[in-house]
Amino acid sequence: MYTAYFGLSEAPFTIAPDPAYLFMSSRHKEALAHLSHGLGDSGGFVLLTGEVGTGKTTISRTVMEKLPENTQAAFILNPTLSSDELLATICDSLNIRYKKSGATLKYLTDKIQEKLLANHEQDINTLVVIDEAQHLQPEVLEQLRLLTNLETNTKKLLQVVLIGQPELQQLLQRRDLRQLAQRITARYHLLPLTLNELTEYIEHRLSVAQCQRNLFNASAIKAIHKISNGIPRVVNVLCDRALILAYGQNQSLVNKKIIYQAADEALGAPLEPRDSGSLWLKSIAIGLGVSVFMVLGIGLGIKFLTEPVSPVVTTSETLPPAKTIATNEMANGQLLESAEKITPIASTNTIKSADHQDITGALQSEHERLETADDNNDQSIANTEAESKEPLVLGHNVEQYKQQQSQSELGFELTAEDDVSPELLAAFKQAIIETDAQAKLEEKPLLESDFQPINKMPENIQNSLPALSFELHMYASDGKGWVRVNGKDFSEGQQIASGVVLQHILPQHVVLLFKEHSFTIPALTNW
């Protein structure tokens, strides 16, 4: 359809897993290395997880293609089976002859074990790969574990690769599956593509289709990454639809506007680039409204529901501002301007339900006015990024907010009504402090460049660092990753050797603390 128009030999963005279009990002290569390392061990389970469309199946097929000739593999794509059905499927995949009717679980297990022994005698490794393994029932997983019990003095006779979505990791945390979890010799969680990797991915697929020029401008690629979250399958759908739209509009280059139109048609998401301002304003208005409701609820709680006109909370200082962040110049200017029109919540004033209605009504009317303003200048977001990080303050300016924050942890003094216990008031204060502290911690993600590598540390640090053998490396973006060092599993914050603390687990490195020095060591390193 559009291939001749853009000078393509074929459509480059189909969702079919064509090996000719295989793109191995640094993350995919790392996942492949982890799986290959796990398969080179002495048996057991290997785990690969990732979100839908990140390329898990592509990785598994690449692993299958690179298996040694003396390997017999069974690839199972439909894991929604009972224990009997799964064993029968394994028998079919491994060419095991068995009676089709009346086969019991023990009968099928014996047949598989006979095959494993026969393969071992012929120096043939046996492998079972199960895709979409998050759908496996716990009893089926336990049956797989029992199959791996057959072993020699040096190796297990069956190796199992489990591939699935992040829910698979949660499934394996069940107490009744702890024995299986202990047999996992390699784990890897496949993350989506970064913006740079996504750019390379698009260029790679276009080059395979013999395209001699760029078809997507920089703003279009950024929009693709934002909408797809770096998921290759979604990228393919977006790019294919965008090329169709560009062809229909006689456009030689895909821009951001076309990408948002493609997202609307292909993903059912009514996203328009000029709506970003109004979306942010909606978030701002909602955030301010939620903050008002939180203030109303702190002093009295349930009492507010039963006595709507009674006082809710009193303050000796001006109440703290809403901590809503704006990333749009128009939002910063106009919302602050509108905030000045709202009477500050001053000292010794008492908030009542009627006041709450006035505030929310003002927010609603102001939001409706701002939403109609012209906001088609996309560049304003980037130009005012630093300014937009300042908090918007309901009834106060930013400098007043900063001064209040420097006075105390909360920035205001909370007092309770007579029927509110000191314990409840203290709990509210602690919750506010912890929430604010957690938000500050999550502002900036850790990067490997934030730390010096071990080879740049002083010689006395390098020479005195204990022997460390990193056998497994499991990174997770939520901080719940773990590594295996010197035969034991450790999480972030634990001491892995004498005087050595595992500070952080990064995608390709670990950060260690030793003798008051923090430094990185590459994953799977023997020191």
TrEMBL record:
CDD domains: AAA. This is AAA+ ATPase domain-containing protein. Transmembrane segments: none annotated. GO terms for molecular function: ATP hydrolysis activity. InterPro entries: AAA+_ATPase, AAA_22, ExeA_AAA_ATPase_DNA-bind, GspB_C, P-loop_NTPase. The lineage of its organism: Bacteria, Pseudomonadati, Pseudomonadota, Gammaproteobacteria, Alteromonadales. SMART domains: AAA. One of its GO terms (cellular component) is type II protein secretion system complex. Residues 42-196 form the AAA+ ATPase domain. It comes from Thalassotalea marina. Gene3D superfamilies: P-loop containing nucleotide triphosphate hydrolases.
